[in-house]
């Protein structure tokens, strides 16, 4: 198939869409990616891109078409302009960059914002191609949950936009089963909704890894590793509260690997609370490096704020954590917590429960090495069964063919 991927984020930024793109190419598909200028998460355009943009026009056999956009910068206004600029850039320049190119299916990668669907719909009309929208974030619910938008009227307008997008897609995929109910509220034809979760990247099942040299090795220390985006949704205040309650326990250490809009705040809070000795902020690294940090971990931490929308979410890191074969400690509700419990891969406390998190960490540290090993094995077995990369790539391919056939039927009956 000739597949067009529309995504605001792409390599050299670290997102699952990079892994998906190279897999589709390996499977013999012709893949083109329409994306923006790499600037996530720091909000500044990558220096390597600025030095030579031509080096970023191809990725593992896929053609990459980039459109002008404003970098995220800092602050809510700048972020809004970043979202809008990609929509405008993709709508104005996308058709020209893709001129003369036949497309069988358009795939939308939407970790946020939902507006990425607008240029995809336009291109679907121009190219006479079905649009498959993968919702990894729920709008307008997430905007309300993180406090980005408080006006009921504005949230209502966003809801109308979401409905406009969903109704013009051939298929809408939800990353968790709980997502499907929310998607249905904004989708006139619920028959187009499908469940499609994130997969666990193969890199997290590697063996014989060399430990990351950035992490000082300390004997007798139990390391809790948090990896990924450092944002509002991850509830780092509760994580730091747990760390602070245990800061006099020299046998517990917290390793935080990642970056995001709350990184500056996190660094200031670690210093203010006097946690420099127990909380290590290691910064951001490419996904290929992450397994080397996992080597240092005794447990992997996943957290989400307490909110109904987040209880419907399975954080993408959960699949990667499970595949790593290490026990999990979760401070979250709903779907994500259910995965950890159903897989018997670790311990869970309620979202926002800093005391519960501290207790879970101490309980995990007190377990025998054999018991923690078994939790890790349980997690990997569950991941291979439910979130296996090959399994889900096969399913996505089938969804693409289904969308193409549905679109042809619609065209014939129109």
Task: Explain what the structure shows.
This protein has 16 helices and 14 strands. The protein is an alpha/beta fold and 414 residues long. It folds into 2 domains: 2-199 and 388-413, Glycogen Phosphorylase B (Rossmann fold, 3-Layer(aba) Sandwich), CATH 3.40.50.2000; 202-386, Glycogen Phosphorylase B (Rossmann fold), CATH 3.40.50.2000. The strands form 2 sheets. It has an 8-stranded mixed β-sheet with strand order 3-4-2-1-5-6-7-8, with helices on both faces. Strand 1, helix 1 and strand 2 (30-35) form a beta-alpha-beta unit. The radius of gyration is 21 Å and the shape is globular.
Give a brief rundown of this model:
With about 425 residues, the protein is of the alpha/beta class. The chain has helices at about 15-25, 45-50, 75-95, 115-125, 140-145, 150-165, 175-185, 235-245, 265-270, 290-295, 310, 315-325, 335-345, 355-365, 370-385, 390-414, and strands at about 1-5, 30-35, 60, 60-65, 105-110, 130-135, 170-175, 195, 220-225, 250-255, 280-285, 300-305, 330, 345-350. The strands form two sheets. It has an eight-stranded mixed β-sheet, with helices on both faces.
Write the layout of secondary structure elements.
Layout: E1 2-6, H1 16-26, E2 30-35, H2 47-51, E3 58-59, E4 62-66, H3 76-97, E5 105-110, H4 117-127, E6 131-135, H5 141-145, H6 152-167, E7 171-174, H7 177-185, E8 193-195, E9 222-227, H8 236-245, E10 252-257, H9 263-272, E11 279-283, H10 290-294, E12 299-303, H11 308-311, H12 316-324, E13 328-331, H13 334-343, E14 346-349, H14 354-366, H15 369-386, H16 389-413
Parallel strand pairs: 1-2, 1-5, 2-4, 5-6, 6-7, 7-8, 9-10, 9-12, 10-11, 12-13, 13-14
Antiparallel strand pairs: 3-4
